[in-house]
Structures are given as structure tokens and as C-alpha cells.
Amino acid sequence: VESQDGDFSLSVRGTVQQDSDFFIDDNNGNPANTNGDDLNNNFYMRRVRPTFTGTVWKYVDWRIMPDFAMGTTRLFDAYADLRYFRAASLAAGKFKAPVSLERLQSASALTFTERGFPTQLAPNHDIGFMLHGEFDRPGGPETPRSYNLYQFPEFFAYQVGIFDGTVNNGNIDSANNDSKQLEARIFAHPFQSSGFEAVEGLGFGIAGSWGHPNDASTPTYATPGQQTMFRYASAARIDGTQYRVYPQMYWNWGPFGLIGEYAVSQQRVANQTVTNGQVGPRTKNTSQIIENDYAWNITASYVLTGEDNVFQGQGIRPRHAFNPFEGNWGAFQIAARWSDISFSDNVFTNVAKAGSKTPVYAYADPRQAVQNATNWSLGVNWWLNQNVKLMADYSQTSFQGGAGVYNAKGQLTNEVADRETEKAFISRVQVSF
Amino acid sequence: VESQDGDFSLSVRGTVQQDSDFFIDDNNGNPANTNGDDLNNNFYMRRVRPTFTGTVWKYVDWRIMPDFAMGTTRLFDAYADLRYFRAASLAAGKFKAPVSLERLQSASALTFTERGFPTQLAPNHDIGFMLHGEFDRPGGPETPRSYNLYQFPEFFAYQVGIFDGTVNNGNIDSANNDSKQLEARIFAHPFQSSGFEAVEGLGFGIAGSWGHPNDASTPTYATPGQQTMFRYASAARIDGTQYRVYPQMYWNWGPFGLIGEYAVSQQRVANQTVTNGQVGPRTKNTSQIIENDYAWNITASYVLTGEDNVFQGQGIRPRHAFNPFEGNWGAFQIAARWSDISFSDNVFTNVAKAGSKTPVYAYADPRQAVQNATNWSLGVNWWLNQNVKLMADYSQTSFQGGAGVYNAKGQLTNEVADRETEKAFISRVQVSF
Amino acid sequence: VESQDGDFSLSVRGTVQQDSDFFIDDNNGNPANTNGDDLNNNFYMRRVRPTFTGTVWKYVDWRIMPDFAMGTTRLFDAYADLRYFRAASLAAGKFKAPVSLERLQSASALTFTERGFPTQLAPNHDIGFMLHGEFDRPGGPETPRSYNLYQFPEFFAYQVGIFDGTVNNGNIDSANNDSKQLEARIFAHPFQSSGFEAVEGLGFGIAGSWGHPNDASTPTYATPGQQTMFRYASAARIDGTQYRVYPQMYWNWGPFGLIGEYAVSQQRVANQTVTNGQVGPRTKNTSQIIENDYAWNITASYVLTGEDNVFQGQGIRPRHAFNPFEGNWGAFQIAARWSDISFSDNVFTNVAKAGSKTPVYAYADPRQAVQNATNWSLGVNWWLNQNVKLMADYSQTSFQGGAGVYNAKGQLTNEVADRETEKAFISRVQVSF
Question: Helix (H, G, I), strand (E, B), or coil: what is residue A346?
């Protein structure tokens, strides 16, 4: 809903998502929760986001979006976008980092309830300044202006920004050190309005980040069932040069849609202690390693009812809204996904003294952090109308490592086992407008 | 305020309540606060709730309502209600649990500043799915559709839902175990449009819940003056079959109004420890008891200025809004209430070894948890207009147990005393629209 | 944006401020952060405030304003204002305390990114009741009614209220003791509509507070670069008679503007312990002192582009909004400020036993709390239009005390050093509407 007043506008929008997670085959007598056993079947609000957005004086867009879900309140978006020049707009504030493609897709348009693994290695929401520009195909039609910071589909677009720099998967509210992070992305739909129908909806690009975080706290990573599968050791910090590279693409051809993304992430992890000296207490790296992580994701979907598959906006627009009294059923979409994430071997380095019987994992304990996770998912989405979507996914994730073994006395042994395969039915009821 | 656009609507609404609590006769030299002495006279915001609600595509209602009062931010409502069929609508999300009648009355329509004791034994806001239907009197006029999940007055209505299952008085955001809770309610206004004027506004019904919580954390209960009067022992958990039964009624006849409710609640309380074993650390019940609690409430009120007393919506609608320049005074309502709550004796079981001089209360310490509380209240409400209400209540609550006695050295003795009678003047300034 | 419906109105408004703090000359090898060294250069959201405000039934204004910035969510405003009589309106709820003048200026109209030191000795947002009235010049024109609780410029205005009573700089949500605080303020624009153009925009007044807090927790004070420069000892409490006096003025003459304020604050600080006795555990003052603090601030500014300098509302209104395509540049303002704060010597009293080598600071440790801070700032504000402002400040603050010295073993010595001079470039991007 929108009220218009010349060059001013204000919209109140919102997204409500209620999720239901049911885990099967998760009662195998292993240690509760920590090894992937005894997971809680759960009804919960995944996203509750009243959104305020608008334009002042024709050229300045702004947006405020908090989230009240998951038992906490967090700010996701709060920015001003000075769009005087379409080739060089300047956004300032808190918004989605221009790195992972799937992250840039609206949460209400997602094909599966949770995004693939590559988004977890990328920054989530970051604070800073971003220069961005969108260009039309030379000689082609002008793309209509949208309110979004990231517009799809545009012939060519770039974003380059300086940010506080979050750790992987991080959503930060202030910097904990002087170092800032550069994030950049280019993306193109080269065949837009080209007449080659099959590839008009093909977009690809590459994004990346470069920074030098200092004593930054470590992230955790979660399974598609929202269970923590990787946590760093408590004394570990991200400290030193960090970069990410994200080749990315999507392709929509009529009812068919494909999203693919690859992620390379390198960071330095330090084992830190505090030392005293003439300059007072200071942190010191006792040891450190370089960690290389990789992830990829490929998602394919098909709209059975024939509507166009889309990446942007709030997703698929059914030709006819569901109305049982008029025999209209909305749109049905089926989808499949394969996604994988691998963590560097040296993040599991045992730093115990030679001869010690008990391992000391200074960076990550392989009994609490998986080395690899592979997920495949199948899903059905019923778009009752443009604003209401019911989703049902089956998601299966198998792991290497990540689990401990207890002896008869209930003591944790040195053995590293595989976390139990996660088999989850996840459904969602969504209203988004 | 509402903007209409065919089958779509969006309303921004809100409730602001500022409360003032003044306690009298609360400086008797007993231990501060814990025994009901030295209570803080307090100005505070009781509810601050901007509310976003609307309809999309004619048949789907939604609502988002956070609360910013009491120094914290919590989500109260976030749901979608698929109302294609009036006899069988499906709501999904977080909303008021269909158990206690007084809970279902809007916070802005309440007769007294705080609800009676029965609501404390019921779930507050729960997450899940609820099927509900409303039916008109056969041959009678059609009740106009409202945006509310719970509609009053309807000839007959039912709600049945499956929820995460909160503990008593709980407002949860996710499940801590697999077990779900069934909640159901039926309610009728059998004499609606019957021509028997005295009982047209009589509604009654029954509600209940059934579940099997596992290792759930314990609730606390508060006095009408918002002081904690009952807390469980720290190792106590709600663990095992739990049910509630809530016969309920209200009756409005012109300016006269009556609300009555009875609550029976049974739950199993366990004294838990953690044990180690082949399957890792697990909780174990060292001992357990069955707890039966009872509460009831009866509230009567009368609108001196003659307007109709109502249960639903935002409350009484004055014939003339207060306007001192035109000699209009709004509406005045007087009210009285009697409410009581009793806790099972066995929740105060002393599990100390025979012969021990010091009691061990594994479930609830009778020096920190009352056995019984009885409240009577008198109130005057001045409805300046439909949206602004000033309330002034006197509330007196007497207790059995709940207080400790200290010896001359300042040590807590084994003696159980009665918590001091709470005498509170509570006033409220409310704007709600 | 506003929707009008007779005597009802509802506005959705908002303020977004993204700040960037860069500290220079802050790497001098001193203990990190605690002494003012190694400060984090930081992009952060300073204010993110969706605001809901309106009027019901012509005479009752209300407002709800939470803030989602700084990684937390807090309620700032939530009140009802019963404005039946312009000479005696009654506000109830949470709102800005009527003490510091600069506090009453809207956050979006500020000349510098942070307010001067006097505001830190005043209550911030308090909860209670306030009677207030505004009067026109006898025979003069009637000032148009505004939605704000505090209106500028009015010929004469008074506010007098009873509040929970926050500590200095405090923003509270409930009272921790019975004692309430009286806050009052008078303010006048005596030459308004007088024909003496130079002084028509001169306003001055005086405000103050009087209360008797009991065991209240202590505040902290921050530098203009948002770094903590003063913290009390952990066992210190504000306990006993407290008053504040705030002479205050501002003067606008065409593009020139001046704001000046002086603050005197007296409070009693106690060193508390808990003792046991017949009445159970109670706090006791082991020792106590009277603390007198002083602060002042003078801010001058000039609008280079000739627009009127204003104190009220959202600030300066450029004659022409920035539009590079039409050669319009908006408004430019330059500003300078001098501000100072001094803390009582006796708050740094050493209560160690005679002969002890190690000092015991029961109220405030001079190695963690400065005795004096002096700030000067220069700033440039570019008002692109009435709703968008870019700010760039240089702020330099020098300190007496506030820093510790470490010996070669890294132990804190008894020596008190001066906290490092803070040299900060602070910029802001603001959208406010």
C-alpha cells in the first residue's frame, strides 16, 4: 500500500513466515542435539518484518526493516540511497552485502525455505557506503526504476562498497576494529532484449570481498534444519587477511528456473591469549592457520502451471489467484537442490603437546564442527496468489565429522564420528506484500 | 486508519498504556520485595503496540504486532489467516491461544488493568496452526465479518489447533521439545437474535488443552500489582502429561456486564539432574509429582452513563466523546472483581532426607511461592471517547504462604509465613485505535 | 505522509542516521581503548526510528517511537497528550524530560552529530505525567498548533511533571524505588512578533529537577566519539537528594544561530554493602559523599546559503532542494562549538585505610573516570533538502585524568594519567521525514 504525493512516497510492507520443522529418524540413542540426534520438531516464526520504504524529493530512497522473529529483534535494513545519477548511486547505511547472489534474492521469493550453503560463507547484512550503477542495453529499452538497492534484471550492474566487514554469515551493528572491508560485484543479463528467447533470462556475474579483520569473533554455521553444525573453539578469532570469491548465475526460461553459485573463502584463524605488558593487557596470537572453505549450490525449479519463473521481487505471480469458488488454483512450482560445503583440514589442527593423550583443538573441534556437509532437497511451492505462498520441502543433509563418541562412563572420547544425517520436512506459510 | 484498494487493505493501529502502581501499607519492616514488602511505586509503560493488520486477495488476513513496553521488545502476534471458508478458516503463526476467555478479550477493552488469575494458568501466545469456524444462527442475520481471529459475538464458534505448547502464562518463540499441544475451544451465544433481550448478550463455552511437555522450563506467576508471587525451584521442570479445562462465560445486558471463568490445570513437575552415560549427558527425573492448580475469576461492571457494555473490540463506545466545550463527558463504568488461585500441596513437598533439619524443596519453596492468593478489586473507568480511557483500580490481594522469616542473625529460618497483603492503587492512561 | 479523517490523523514518520567515526592519532601504544587509545573506526547506525504519531478525537495526541539502532531495540517515546486546554495539557507516558534545552531539539535538527555535555547530566527519557501550557503574546498572532509535546517558538511555555526519575543521561522503563522526581521548565520568546527583528528569534528559560533517588544504579558518560569516559565504581549508588539547574537559551537571527546552556547537578553517591538482619538482607551505606558536577555548551552556526537558521522541527529548510540537473545545491551550514564538563573532586575520594599502599576508590576510580573534559568542534552541514542532510564534523576533546599507567609487568599502577586527547572525524548521512 502506497500513498503518493508528487515526488514523495511511503510504503508500509511486510513479510510473515511461519515455519514447521519435522525431523525424522533422529532418535538413534546418540547424545542429544550435539550430534544431530533428538532434534526438536518445531513451529516457529522464521521472519516477521514490517517494512517501511519510500522516496523523498524524487531522488532519495530509504528503507527501514526490523525483524521480530526467532524470539529476538534485529535490524536488517536501514539505509538511504542517493539516486541522482543512475550510473552512480550512493547508498549509506545497513543493507545486504553485495556478495552472495542467493542472499540478494528477496526472502519472500526463495525457492526453498533456507538458502544454500554458499550464503553462509558470505557477509549477511553489513554497514557502510556503496556506490552502484545500473545500465540499460545500448539501444535497448529503459528498465523501469525500482525501489530496490539491487535490481533484477538489469543489462549490466555494478556495486562497490566499503563496509565494517562482517565475519561469514554475519549481521553486524558496529565495528570491533579499525579495519574495513571492500565488497564488490558485477552482474549482467547480456542477452536481455536480444531476441534469443531461451537466454534472455540468463544473468551471471562475479562478486568478492577483501579485508583484514582484527581479533574478530567467529561465526557459526547451520544446517538447512537450522541446527548448528559448525562452531569454532572459544579462543579462536578471525585475524588477518580475508577474501571471498563468488561466481554466480541464474537462468529463467519461461516456467524453468536455475540458480547456481560457487563460493571460495579464505581467512586466517588465530588462537588468542591475553598478555600483560607495559601497554596494558593486549591479545596475542599463540598460533594461527590459513583456512580455505568452499561451497556451492545449484537449484532448479519448474512452474507446473506455466507462469514465468522469476528471480526478482516477491517471486512468481500466478495468472489466477486461488479462489475455490471460481475454480482457480494459483501456481504450483516444483524444485530440486544440491548444495555442499567443505571446511579446511587445518582448522581442525590438534595443537596439543607431542605425546599428549588428550587432543587440544585451538581452532575448531572436529567433534563439534563438521568437515563437510552435503544437502539435497526437493520442494513443492503453492503460490495461492502473488502474496501468499505455502511451501513444503524435504531436505536431507549428510555430514563428515562433527560428532563425538561417549564411553560407558559418559566421557567424551577422542574419536571423531559423523554427525547424524539430517532428514527434515520443512514447511512454510508465508504472507508477503 | 485504513487504505482500501479493492480486496486489499492495510491498517496501522496502536495501543499505548501508561500505568501507575502505588502500594500502600507496604513498609512493615519485612525483607524487602521478596515477602511483598517495600514494593516500588512505579510509573511504567504497560503496553506499547504498533499494530499492522490487513487483508490480501480478499480471503487472507494477516497481522503483525510487537510490543515495546516493560523495557523489552517482544513479538505478540504474527499470523496469516486463510479465510476461504467461514466454517473452516486456517490460521498459521503466532497468536493468542484459544483457552482462557479473558485472554481473548482485547487488552484495550479490559475492565481492570490486569486480567484475573485464571489467565495465568493458560497459555498466553503460542505458535502453530488453528482451524476455526464461525456460524450464524440458522435463519438469523449474518454477522458482519471482522478482522479478528476471535470474533465476538458469534452464534457458535469453534477453534482447534496444534501448537508448540507453552507452559502456563507462557509466550514462546520456539519449541524446546518434540511434543506438541492440542488446544481447543467452543463458544456460543445461543440467544443471539432470539428476542429474549436479557440473555441475547450471554455467551458461554468451554476450552482446554492437552499435551505432554518434556523438560519444559517452569513459569512464574504474578500478583495484580505485577509482583512475582510464585516461582518454582531452579531444578524443577514441567515434564509429562499436562491438561487444562476452562469453562467460561460472559453476559452483557445493556449497561451491565459480567465475565466469569474457572480454570483447572494439571501438570507433572519433575526434579531433574543430568547424568552421563553411553549416550552422553541426559537429563533424568530424580523425583516427580502431579500438580493440580485451580483458579477462578468473576468480574461485574456497570456503565453509569447508560452505554452498552461490550466484551469485544476496543470496548465501550461513549455516546458522546468528552468535550468540555460542549458539555459532553464520555462514559463512566464502575466494576468489581473477585479472583482466586490455589496451588497443589504436593508442589511444596520437602524432599530432604528423613531427620534433616534443613528442608529441601525440589519443586517450589513455600517461602518463595504462595499456596493461595485471593484478590478483590474495585475500579472506575472513564472512557473519554472510544479511543481514550482512564482507569483507576483499587486491588487487594491476600496470600497463604509465600514468605520467609529471618532470625536475628539475618538467616532464613524454616518457618513459612504469609506474604504481606498487597494493597495497590493502579491507574492507567490508554490510547488505542 | 498523513491520512486525514476529520479530527483524526495518523502519520508514519522516520529517521535514519548512518554515522562514520574516524579517530586520528589514536595509536600511541597505550592500553587499548580504556585510556582512549586504539579507538575503533566505525560505521554504525546512530538512529533508526520509525515513528507513529497522530491525533484522535481532535484533542488527544499520541506518539510511538522505538529505536532499532546501535545493535539494540529501545523505546524512546510512547505517550498520550490530552490537549483539551492549551494552557494546561496533560501528557502521560514516556517522553523527553523537560530539563536540557539541547535534548528537546529534535535529533534530526542537531547542528553537530552529538549533543553537548550538559545533556549528559540531565534525564534523557523519563516516564510519568506532565502538565504543560503554551501562551501567545497578548494581542499577538496565534501560534499554529503542532503535534509536538515541546513547541518552538512559543511566546511563553511551561512544563511541570512528576516522573520515575532517571539518573543522569538515563532512559528508563520502570522505577527501582518509591521516590519520584519533579521536573520543571519555563521558556519564553519575549520579543516574538515585537518588531525588533534581531531579537525576535531569541528564546531563553530555565529548567530543573528535584528528587530523592534511593539505591539507584549509576550512569556512565561518553565522549563526542561515543567512547565511555566516566564510569562509577561497581558498589556506588545514587542515594539521596538530587537536583539539577539548567539556565538555557538560543538565538536565531536570519542565517545565524546560537545555542547556549549551563548545567549544575548535585547528587549524593553512596558506597553500598548488603547486611543481614532480622528484616533479611538490606543495603547499607558504608560511606557517602555529595557530588557537584558542572557542564556548559555553546554552539554557533551560520547558513551560508542564506536560509533561516531554526531550532525547531526537522531543521533548516533549503530554498531549493539539491538537484544537479537544475543547478540547485540545497543549503550549507557551518558551525562551531565549545563544551566542557567537570566532576566533583570528592567523587574520586580514596577510602583505603590509612597507610594502605593500594588506593580504594569507592565512588569512581580516577583511572577510569575523567575529572574534566573540554571539547571543541567544527562542522559543515549540507542540507540537500528538507529531509536529507549530510554532516561532517571535526571534534577534539582533551581530558584531565581518566587513564591508568601500567608497569613493565603489565600491572596497573597507582598513577593517574590524562586520557588521550580524542580527535575524531564524524560524518553522518541522514534521512528524516
Answer: helix
The mean pLDDT of chain B is 93
Phi, psi of B335 (to 5 degrees): -150, 155
B427 touches chain C (CB under 8 A): no
B212 touches chain A (CB under 8 A): no
How much is the average pLDDT of B26-54? 90
| Cβ pair C117, C297 in contact under 8 A | yes
Instruction: Tell me whether residues B43 and C79 touch, CB distance under 8 A.
Output: no
Q: Which amino acid is at A4?
A: Q
Nearest to C304 by CA among C377, C382, C246, C196: C382
**Nearest by CB: C75 against B48, B388, B433:** B48
Element (H, E) at A187: strand A181-188
pLDDT of residue C73: 96
Within A235-341, residue ranges assigned H as helices are none
DSSP-derived letter for residue A122 is: S
Please state the separation of Cα A263 from the chain's center in Å: 12
Instruction: Give chain B positions within 8 Å (CB) of C64.
Output: 14, 16, 48, 50, 68
Give the mean pLDDT of B314-334.
96
Q: Rounded to an integer, what distance in angstroms lies between the CA atom of residue B221 and that of residue B169?
A: 8
Domain ranges across chain B: 2-432
What is the rounded CA–CA span in Å between residue B5 and residue B3? 7
Helices then strands, each counted (H, E), chain B: 3, 21
The predicted model gives B190-206 an average pLDDT of 94
By CB atoms closer than 10 A (0-12, 13-18, 19+), residue B142 is exposed
Min Cα distance B112 → chain C (Å) is 19
pLDDT surpasses 70 at B5: no
Domain B2-432: homologous superfamily in CATH: Porin (2.40.160.10)
In degrees rounded to 5, what are phi and psi of residue C344?
-45, 140
What are φ and ψ of residue C223, in 5° steps? Answer: -75, 170
Ordered mean pLDDT values, 10 residues apiece, chain A (433 residues): 69 96 89 85 96 94 96 96 95 97 96 97 96 91 78 93 91 86 97 92 97 93 95 95 97 98 97 84 90 98 97 93 96 98 96 92 96 98 97 98 90 94 97 95
d(CA C329, CA C244): 43
Q: What is the model's pLDDT at position B408?
A: 85
CB C199 within 8 A of CB C254: no
**At which residue does the C-alpha cell 484495550 appear?**
B108
Per DSSP, the three-state class of B348 is helix
Interface list for C 263-322 with B (CB within 8 A) = 275-282
CB contact under 8 A, C173 and B411: no
Confidence at residue A1, expressed as pLDDT on a 0 to 100 scale: 46
CA distance B431 to C55: 10
Residue B197 C-alpha cell reads as 433481550
Three-class SS state of B21: strand
Residue ranges of chain C with per-residue pLDDT less than 70: 1-6, 146-147
Q: Tell whether the model's pLDDT for residue B1 goes beyond 50.
A: no
Cα dist from C168 to A279, B72, C126, C293, whole Å = 33, 21, 11, 11
| B-to-C residue pairs, Cβ atoms closer than 8 angstroms | 142
User: What pLDDT, on a 0 to 100 scale, did the predictor assign at position B274?
Assistant: 85
CB-CB: which of B56, B163, B279 is closest to A433? B56
Contacts of C65 in chain B (CB under 8 A): none
CA dist B75 and A14 (Å) reads 14
pLDDT of residue C1: 45
- Decide if C41 and A178 are in contact by the 8 Å CB cutoff: yes
Asked if residue B356 has pLDDT above 60, the reply is yes
What is the phi/psi pair of residue B103, to 5°?
-60, -35
Predicted-complex ipTM score:
0.96
For residue A367, the number of C-alpha atoms closer than 13 Å in the C-beta half-sphere is: 15
